[in-house]
């Protein structure tokens, strides 16, 4: 892979997953981590990514207030958000992760909706606070500067005390064999606790992340109740998930 092609691949992965690890990119592209680090530095110098220890972040992921445009695959995420918003009913207790798709969900909530939203994601909390009719509960603890989300034992303990009607997870990768996976250890621990603390688990993802794999396991496929993408439910790419017993929207 030529340098230009390699850097284009890296930039795409950053936009797709919001965060990438140098070690994983090294394995995928089959070059040394030193080469990846140099590529990341060049991309950062060009203002295309934010280089951090062990990898890189997208600019949108690093913002506390996510931009209303220039988010990767934003039109698809808006479709997903509208589908997810239709699942939420008055009086529900809803537990959510963070991420750009969840932000679009927050912006898509009907003005008349009266529900309670619980999250440790600072950008998500700020969006929920703009809604006139929903109550907001912040799940607090130590804050991850890169993920803009509360992490740690106290946050996990608080999540385990919740009995939510819905858990809405923005996910980084999903396939039938490995279930949902991610690349951030501390965020994965939060998502595992969220899954245990809700009656129904809803995963939100653009279709580009379907049949992909990240290094850290979150949950097996049978723990997912609903999968929402921008695709129509009868799209052939989604049929294996329907066959596995998941409701696909």
TrEMBL record:
Keyword set, alphabetical order: DNA-binding, Repressor, Transcription, Transcription regulation
Source lineage: Bacteria, Pseudomonadati, Bacteroidota, Chitinophagia, Chitinophagales
Pfam families (alphabetical): DeoRC, HTH_DeoR
PANTHER family noted in UniProt: GLYCEROL-3-PHOSPHATE REGULON REPRESSOR, HTH-TYPE TRANSCRIPTIONAL REGULATOR SRLR-RELATED
Top-level taxon: Bacteria
Name of the featured protein: DeoR family transcriptional regulator
Annotated ranges, domain HTH deoR-type: 3-58
InterPro entries assigned to the protein according to its UniProt record, in alphabetical order: Carb_Metab_HTH_regulators (IPR050313), DeoR-like_C (IPR014036), DeoR_HTH (IPR001034), NagB/RpiA_transferase-like (IPR037171), Tscrpt_reg_HTH_DeoR_CS (IPR018356), WH-like_DNA-bd_sf (IPR036388), WH_DNA-bd_sf (IPR036390)
Annotated GO MF terms: DNA binding; DNA-binding transcription factor activity
Classification via SUPFAM superfamilies: NagB/RpiA/CoA transferase-like, Winged helix' DNA-binding domain
């Amino acid at each position: 892979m030529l340098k230009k092609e390699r850097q284009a691949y890296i930039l795409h992965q950053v936009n797709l997953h919001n965060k990438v690890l140098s070690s994983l990119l090294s394995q995928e592209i089959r070059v040394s981590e030193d080469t990846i680090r140099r590529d990341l530095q060049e991309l950062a110098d060009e203002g295309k990514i934010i280089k951090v220890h062990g990898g890189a972040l997208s600019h949108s992921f690093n913002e506390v207030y996510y931009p209303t445009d220039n988010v990767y695959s934003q039109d698809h995420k808006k479709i997903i958000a509208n589908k997810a918003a239709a699942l939420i009913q008055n009086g529900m207790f809803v537990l959510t992760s963070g991420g750009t798709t969840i932000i679009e969900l927050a912006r898509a909530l009907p003005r008349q909706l009266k529900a309670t939203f619980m999250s440790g994601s600072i950008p998500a909390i700020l969006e929920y606070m703009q809604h006139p009719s929903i109550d907001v509960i912040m799940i607090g603890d130590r804050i991850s500067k890169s993920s803009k989300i509360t992490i740690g034992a106290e946050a996990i303990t608080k999540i385990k005390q919740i009995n939510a009607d819905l858990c809405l997870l923005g996910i980084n990768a999903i396939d039938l064999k490995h279930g949902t996976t991610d690349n951030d250890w501390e965020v994965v621990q939060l998502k595992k606790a969220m899954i245990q603390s809700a009656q129904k688990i809803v995963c939100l993802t653009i279709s580009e992340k379907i049949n992909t794999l990240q290094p850290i396991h979150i949950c097996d496929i049978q723990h997912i109740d609903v999968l929402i993408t921008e695709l129509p439910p009868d799209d052939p790419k989604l049929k294996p998930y329907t066959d596995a017993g998941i409701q696909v929207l």
